[in-house]
Structures are given as C-alpha cells and as structure tokens.
Specification:
CATH architecture: 3-Layer(aba) Sandwich
Number of strands: 7
Shape: globular
Helix content: 25-40%
Distance between the termini: 31 Å
Strand order of the largest sheet: 3-2-1-4-5-7-6
Structural class: alpha/beta
Number of helices: 8
Number of domains: 1
CATH topology: Rossmann fold
Length: 212
Amino acid sequence: MEFLTEDLQQYVEDHSEPESDLLQQINRETHLHVLKPRMLSGHLQGRVLSMLSHMIKPKNILEIGTYTGYAALSMAEGMQSDGKLVTIDNNAELSIRTKEYFSKSNYANQLEMILGNALEVIPSLDKKWDLVFIDADKENYTNYFDLIIDQVNVGGFIIADNVLWSGKVFDETKSDKDTEAIRDFNHKMHTDSRIQNVLFPIRDGLMILRKL
C-alpha cells in the first residue's frame, strides 16, 4: 500500500500539518485494537482530505465506508459551519467505537452515522452532495458512483480511495475480483464525460473527480 520509502514517508509527514490530538488517538487505538488497521486513512491522507475539504468548503459531505472515523473527521475540518457529514457503514460493533470518537470532536452535532448497506441507504438520502468519499467494498465502487453521481452538485467532488490497490491494478498477473473491480472503476472514471478526473499517487491511490 505504501509506495514511498519509509524515510521519505516520514519526511513528508514531518513537513505536513500534524494530526489533532483526537486523530492521533484514533490512529494509535485503531492500530492497537482494531482489525486491519491499514484501512485507516492515516496522517498524510488525512491531511490531504482536510486540505481538499477546506478548498471545496462543502456544506454536505457523504462518506461511504466509515471504519473508525479518521477520514470523516479530517473532511469535517473544511465543512461549512452549518454543514453536515453523513457516513454509512455496516459494522455495528465498530460503530460503537467510532461514535465515541465523533462525540469527542468539534463536529459532533454535524455528524450522522448510518448503519446499513450503502447500496440501500444512498437512494433514501434526499440531499445534494458537495463532497463524496468512497472507501468501502471495492466490488461496489462502480455501483456507488452510479448511485451518487446524480446527487452530486455540479462542481462537486467525489474522492475514491485505494484505486492503486497496492499496485495490483497494473500487475497483469493479478485477476482477483477486487482488483478487477478497481480496474473497471478506474477505466470508467477515465472515460465518463460527466466528470474531470485525476489519479493522485497518495498512499494507496486517490481518484479525485469533479462533476462537470
């Protein structure tokens, strides 16, 4: 997942805005107590999400795939004062920990966590989104995009995580379902006339999309 050398990664993080105390706590406790801690956005990606959110100044943010809430809290930093972030996840056990983190944040009253299947939840949300972050099961990335694209405001942004998939996307020997799904998603994003796209080689790859 990490494409930079350890020393270079450390240098980049040392010269980027530090994590807040709460994000440091989430980072530390996720690595200590939660399965698959590499799913956490982490310091560098979190600061990128925060910076992008500050640039976009979204009023409504949708996140598909919450995990322990690190990315959600990072994006919330740039949200408008009267904005709202809705995040969807199907892990009821992990949501208990995540909601505790949310309650400690400065954005507690602006965060809504919905437990359920995102494919079923998204059509029920009557909102227009300024920023959407997709970081859930890879097989459904294209389905998530298809569900939300009409709900995104013109000029709004969609960010998809893990689009380099640890380098498997350009390794012709890899053909598992997740890898093929990410390849298909990347191709669709590169050819869909409704969006402008750029793939950032940050951590495991961020696909940044702007709705035209």
